[in-house]
Amino acid sequence: MFAHHGTPASLEVLLFPFFDLMVCTLGVLTLLAGSIVSLSLETTGITITNANTEAIQGETKKSPFYVEWTGRGIVVYPSLTQIPIAVPSGAETTVDFARVEQDLALQIRETPFAAVLQCLQANKQMRYLVALVRPTGFDTFLFFRELILGSGVEIGYEPVGEHWKIASASESCP
User: Fold this and answer.
1) CA distances from 12 to 5, 6, 16, 45, 159 (A)
2) Measured distance CA(152)–CA(146) in Å, rounded
3) What is the rounded CA–CA span in Å between residue 44 and residue 162?
4) How many distinct structural domains can be found in the chain?
5) Tens digit of each residue's pLDDT (9 = 90 or more) over 119-145
6) CB-based burial of residue 161 (10 Å sphere; 0-12 exposed, 13-18 middle, 19+ buried)?
7) Prediction pTM value
8) Could you tell me if residue 91 is inside a domain?
9) Which residues constitute the domain of residue 26?
């Protein structure tokens, strides 16, 4: 009788499936670590400055004036004057748009924002309004925007996070 030397084929150990599992686990851990890092680097604030940009030849350079629209009021920068405003939710389907605009104009008429609006109207070749819109103000922002456009002032907007801190270094309206 002859002895058989070597390993029978049935006892052979393959490491390829184990290697596959290790690579997949390492990929998932890398993805998880990357997600945690990106969430921890999330922006928590915004700084407002007047950038010193060059105007296109033949055009006048306009500078922005910032206000914050929360849906429940206006915050005027840089003085941080808070003006409470009552506006019905834009999600309501029975809202009379013209009536809401008139009501909003009446609420603003005797506030410091009315003086800002008059200043922007008088300097519309040099200034425009930028509304920083909080998430609570998105459904009512259209009313505010139409009021500003109706007064002849250019308006832009920038969405900002609910808990973002806003540091203003912009100029007030003279």
Assistant:
1) 14, 11, 12, 60, 62
2) 10
3) 9
4) 2
5) 888 988 888 889 999 998 888 888 888
6) middle
7) 0.63
8) yes
9) 12-40
